[in-house]
Design goal:
The chain has two domains: about 90 residues, no CATH class; about 210 residues, Cathepsin B, Chain A, CATH 3.90.70.10. It has about 325 residues and is α+β, with helices and mostly antiparallel strands. The chain is built from nine helices and ten strands. It binds 2-acetamido-2-deoxy-beta-D-glucopyranose (4 copies). The site of one 2-acetamido-2-deoxy-beta-D-glucopyranose (NAG) has 8 residues, from loops. GO terms for molecular function: cysteine-type peptidase activity.
Length: about 325
């Protein structure tokens, strides 16, 4: 799977550049427009060019289906799907590169307080400047590490009032219960961090390389953030309670089914996203219940040009995309 993913990446980067023609007919073709916009360099006439054009046309058909008013009755705030930088990948290629996380069976959260908490209409840890910028996992299937490191950064910022970017590469290289850029689980990584008390160093000291490497060790005197404990629950059917925990614990790491996210452009995802088939990991930073459709505010790791400045909105209440199935937060 990794080899396949990497070979796609290499093709993007190395295949010979031949400028597409510039006659008006070609300039009007959506595929050529896509090639220019995303800097693709497939030689016209090559097999690769034909293959990519085929996947692109398939993606256009997918967008019609996903946006279809028959299957997803159009309403305001509905998610919108269309051309983005993943549009020349087949769904299989997309899955092999970007969808490398699993759901884990967790205990159901048990409500302890008798009274229902009063929740604000809108809450987002970004508003307090306690969330690091959106990252880009590139061709590394390390979403699980991005998800929990994001959560630890925020937990540390909430405690210390100091927002530091911590090393995702360290978790990818060192969490031996996971498979680095070939995939992993948020819960295994938290289990490892809680057991070993490894200190995560700054991202600038242990830079992201988009591939699994050898685990580096740092003297215990160096700056680093270790976790003291973590919580992990299944909040399916109790997303109200999950909102309370987001306020109490900080941003929440979650696993989701992100197959339809290949084509996501914006809006609130309400359909075409199953639960119980998780393949990706993300970080929930907040929620918004001010409009007709309440939604989770979710930070992804596919760069800031994907979705809504790197974020995606997911409807609250029906475990859409399995957002409430595998939820965790670290305590630092
Ligand atoms: C293509 O044509 C447009 C409009 O005539 C022109 O502005 C542009 O520079 C041309 N691009 C190339 C690569 O020749
Ligand atoms: C969507 O919103 C617009 C403007 O707010 C409104 O005119 C329109 O009726 C709404 N459509 C639906 C289907 O609710
Ligand atoms: C979470 O709980 C729901 C409802 O109890 C269940 O259907 C679902 O399978 C659970 N999810 C996981 C990942 O175990
Ligand atoms: C984390 O580690 C502490 C200390 O070893 C332990 O008491 C706690 O149960 C662990 N947390 C989880 C969720 O396993």
């Amino acid at each position: 799977m990794l080899l396949f993913g990497l070979s796609v990446f290499v093709l993007f980067c190395l295949s010979a550049w031949a400028a597409p023609g510039n006659n008006t007919e070609e300039a009007g073709s959506p595929f050529l427009h896509f090639l220019t916009r995303y800097g693709r360099r497939y030689s016209p006439g090559s097999l690769e060019f034909q293959k990519r054009e085929h996947f692109f046309q398939e993606s256009i058909r997918r967008h019609e289906y996903l946006n279809s008013p028959v299957l997803a009755p159009y309403e305001n705030n509905s998610a919108i799907y269309g051309i983005n930088r993943f549009s020349d990948l087949s769904p299989e290629e997309f899955k092999a590169i970007y969808l490398q996380s699993k759901a884990v069976e967790l205990p159901k959260y048990v409500t302890t307080s008798a009274k229902e908490a009063i929740l604000p209409a809108r809450f987002d840890w970004r508003d307090k400047n306690l969330v690091t910028p959106v990252r880009n996992q590139l061709s590394c299937g390390g979403c699980w590490a991005f998800s929990i490191v994001g959560g630890i950064e925020s937990a540390y910022a909430i405690n210390e009032n100091l927002l530091e970017e911590l090393s995702v590469q360290q978790v990818i290289d060192c969490s031996y219960e996971d498979n680095g850029c070939n995939g992993g689980s948020t819960i295994n990584a938290l289990h490892w961090l809680n057991k070993t008390r490894v200190k995560l160093v700054r991202a600038s000291e242990y830079e992201f390389k988009a591939q699994t490497g050898i685990c580096h060790y740092f003297p215990s005197s160096d700056f680093g953030v270790s976790i003291r404990d973590y919580k992990a629950y299944n909040f399916s059917d109790i997303e109200e309670e999950m909102m309370t925990q987001l306020i109490n614990l900080g941003p929440l790491a979650a696993t989701v089914d992100a197959v339809s996210w290949q084509d996501y452009l914006g809006g609130i995802i309400q359909y075409h996203c199953s639960s119980g088939e998780a393949n990706h990991a993300v970080l929930i930073t907040g929620f918004d219940r001010t409009g007709d459709i309440p939604y989770w505010i979710v930070k992804n790791s596919w760069g800031s040009t994907w979705g809504i400045d790197g974020y995606v909105h997911i409807k609250i209440g029906q475990n859409v995309c399995g957002i409430a199935d595998t939820v965790s937060a670290a305590r630092v």
